[in-house]
Amino acid sequence: MVIMPKARKPLPTDLIDEYFQLMEGGLVVWKKSPHPKIPTGTKAGRTPKGRHLQIMLRGSSYGYHRIVYYLAYGVDSIGYEIDHINRDPTDNRPENLRLATEVQNKWNKGANVNNKIGQRGIRQRFWGQSYRWEVSFRCRYVGTYKTLEEAIEAWEKVAKPYAKEFFFHKEKTD
Questions:
Q1: Structural domains of the chain sorted by starting position, each given as residue range(s) with its CATH number in brackets
Q2: What's the number of CA atoms in the CB half-sphere (13 Å) around residue 51?
Q3: 12: closest CA among 51, 58, 52?
Q4: In this predicted structure, what is the pLDDT of residue 121?
Q5: Burial class (CB in 10 A: 0-12, 13-18, 19+), 69
Q6: According to the model, what pLDDT value does residue 39 have?
Q7: Which of 7, 41, 72, 103 has the smallest number of CB atoms closer than 10 Å to its CB?
Q8: H runs (alpha helix) in 52-97
């Protein structure tokens, strides 16, 4: 089975070059006004309810980070996702953006919000007389460990070779 990248509409690069300018810090401003009520030099984009920042241009909505990436590197991200390296979707500085496949982008995330442990691939199990930490990776059992730290180390050891530079490591907060 061949996995196809997400279908997205290509960026209208000629219009983006005509209407937008990239400023320092990943700020996109209107180089040419699309409407009499929008002055040139003002910040482009809006945040739809519960979503990433978007830019409307001629009736179509485009991801702010896609436009920043195009303006910075001259490449349309069609067929790829834009990964925020520091995992902050509001930080659209060009140096914080990189092209990624869907799988690579998913590596750069933490545990699900309903994960009580806060670590991917690890769950607490009751074994005999005490609790142990069970580690699995890609639906395969890795091992059972006495401490959470040992379990995290084991999971990272098997996961890092797959994720490479996209691997997200939760910083220890002591």
A1: 13-107 (3.90.75.20), 122-166 (no CATH)
A2: 13
A3: 58
A4: 79
A5: buried
A6: 92
A7: 7
A8: 64-73
Question: Is-contact 105 81, C-beta < 8 A?
Answer: yes
The two tokens of residue 50 are 């519960």
Phi and psi at 46, nearest 5°, equal -150, 160
Q: Is the pLDDT of residue 167 over 90?
A: no
Confidence class of residue 149 from pLDDT cuts 50, 70 and 90?
A: confident
pLDDT tens digit sequence for 84-99: 998 888 899 999 999 9
Q: Which residue has the higher pLDDT, 14 or 172?
A: 14
